[in-house]
Design brief:
- By secondary structure, the chain is α+β, with helices and mostly antiparallel strands.
- The chain is built from eleven helices and 24 strands.
- The strands form six sheets. A seven-stranded antiparallel sheet has the order 1-2-3-4-5-6-7, with no helix packed on it.
- Strand 2 and strand 3 form a beta hairpin.
């Protein structure tokens, strides 16, 4: 007889052969979908499928690993998080959110249990003791390690990083507040001299007993019987989300109206108004006011501090839009990019395509806080028209190919607050000679980073990971910023008084360019007679 070889050891330590790996890939034959969180057990593949916009949670799907027909089946719904145990025998699932959240431990190889009582974990019963000093020391050491392992320069710019650890980490023993730890982390990371490094606060204690202010989104002056509304912060009327409490539909309170009382309490000063609005953000209040000799009242929902900041921003943008339109006779458009994230991509698409057919456009990235959409915006600006279709009636505008391409003159506004991806966008515009930059030199945060290195309490000592170089090999932006082509400084007092020399300079430049180099009209030639062919491209 022939003795069978012992393969148990080989099965446990099966070698992974990387050579030729792409040729051995197998496609899981399921329909396409918006999947996330792929997990694999010994018998199944688990993944989450996001539903339509507005739906809560995700659907957890399951695929049995088999040589027979593969089927994607429902496992459970309303899933917010899920994870496998180390041995892949148990699956953790969170269903629902906030107070309605349920935490479950189930067997991923079996059907999801109908009776959840035996699978539910009572998180509310858990009590975790954390010594703040131990946690702060751990975070200081973690921040040091993360810089050691992820910083863009593996030699850490020649800094003796072990010596930095020995000098700073012991100081965590003297920290008495989470905010002090942030100061310590900032000083430690600053040893590398990277302008794009950032410290983000973690679990900072909150004083929940002090008052939380609320706002109406207006300015005031004293009046004989109350506070007269001088101005109301404006926004885009076609976008109610940009409008403050007094501009919401159905309110109708106007500049010149005099506020006399809030919820029946008399108002005579701004301080009294602030006191009556304290803790009222998001709640209904009754505003009594007079308009000429008429007594009126309205129910209003005051804004929070964060919403008030957004109202100030929306008012500033709207003022610039209107000023540019008025000064140019509608020939020049204006848009501002507050940052470079998903919401800003939507903002750019909404505002850019409003102005794509104008003679001039000002893209303002002053104060831009960064993100990661510069390539998409620059790609949009690089599009060029090479043909057009005239209106069949001859009365309407022509349609270009490429469609909705901007053909006019462009300027970019920058300042010392243009940061991160905002200045990468400005640098790209300058390198590709798309438009002149107007303003002052940008911040100088040019080494790119990610959010893959958080600390244990949700804070972050963010590490600059990817140095940026031009095609000629020069190190770009970091520590220096991007210089303007037309340098214009907004002086502090003039800016306080509402003047904007940078915007004025950009507008003056565009007016001159439009006059000197008007956009050529799209004029079609005569249609050829029957039998005559179209021209070749040249």
């Amino acid at each position: 007889t022939t003795e069978k070889p012992d393969t148990s050891k080989d099965e446990k330590q099966a070698p992974v052969v990387l050579a030729g790996l792409p040729d051995r890939l197998w496609e899981v034959p399921v329909r396409p979908g918006d999947y996330a969180g792929l997990l694999v057990t010994g018998t199944h593949i688990l993944l989450a499928e996001r539903g339509e916009q507005g739906e809560e949670g995700a659907s957890l799907r399951r695929i049995k690993i088999t040589s027979k027909k593969v089927e994607l089946t429902d496992f459970t719904g309303d899933v917010r998080r899920f994870a496998l145990s180390a041995d892949r025998s148990k699956l953790f699932v969170q269903q629902g959110a906030a107070a309605k959240a349920k935490f479950l431990i189930v067997n991923p190889a079996e059907d999801f249990p109908k009776d959840l009582e035996q699978s539910t974990i009572r998180i509310s019963d858990w009590r975790l003791a954390v010594d703040p000093r131990d946690e702060w020391r751990q975070m200081a050491l973690d921040a040091w390690r993360l810089h050691r392992d992820f910083a863009y320069d593996s030699s850490l710019r020649g800094v003796n990083w072990n010596a930095v650890r020995d000098r700073f980490v012991p100081l965590a023993e003297r920290v008495g507040h989470r905010a002090e730890l942030n100061d310590l982390l900032a000083q430690m990371s600053a040893e590398l001299g990277i302008l794009h490094s950032q410290i983000r606060a973690g679990e900072i204690p909150m004083d929940r007993e002090s008052g939380v202010p609320a706002f109406l989104g207006a300015t005031y002056e004293a009046a004989p019987n109350g506070l007269r509304i001088v101005s109301i912060r404006d926004g885009e009327r076609a976008r109610p989300d940009t409008l403050g409490p007094l501009l919401k539909p159905g309110v109708g309170i106007l500049p010149g109206d005099v506020i006399t009382a809030i919820d029946g309490a008399k108002i005579t000063t701004v301080a009294a108004l602030g006191e009556r609005l304290m803790q009222k953000a998001g709640q209904q209040v009754r505003i009594d006011f007079t308009r000429e000799a008429t007594q009126l009242s309205r129910i209003v929902i005051p804004a929070s501090r964060g919403e008030e900041i957004n109202l100030l921003y929306a008012d500033w943008v709207q003022h610039n839009r209107e000023a540019v339109a008025a000064a140019s006779g509608g020939k020049v458009g204006y848009l501002h990019l507050r940052a470079m994230g998903a919401g800003d991509a939507a903002s750019f698409a909404r505002d850019f395509y409003e102005h794509y057919d104008k003679d001039g456009l000002i893209i303002d990235v002053r104060g831009n806080r960064g993100g990661n959409i510069d390539s998409w915006i620059i790609g949009t600006l690089l599009r060029r028209v090479w043909a057009f279709w005239p209106s069949s009636t001859g009365a309407g505008p022509a349609t270009t190919n490429m469609q909705q391409t901007f053909r006019g003159h462009l300027t970019i506004l920058i300042d010392e607050g243009t940061y991160s991806d905002g200045e990468t966008f400005a640098a790209g515009v300058k390198a590709l000679n798309l438009a002149p930059l107007v303003g002052v030199q940008t911040a100088g945060a040019g080494i790119w980073l990610s959010d893959r290195n958080p600390l244990i309490d949700g804070g972050q000592a963010r590490i600059a990971e990817m140095g940026q170089f031009g095609l000629d090999g020069r190190w770009l932006v970091e520590g220096r910023g991007v210089s303007p082509d037309i340098e214009v400084e907004n002086m502090p007092r003039a800016a306080y008084l509402g003047q904007d020399a940078q915007l004025d300079a950009a507008l003056a430049y565009l007016k001159d360019k439009i006059t000197a180099s008007p956009i050529p009209p799209l004029t079609p030639g005569a249609y050829p007679p029957l039998g005559e062919y179209g021209a070749d491209i040249r």
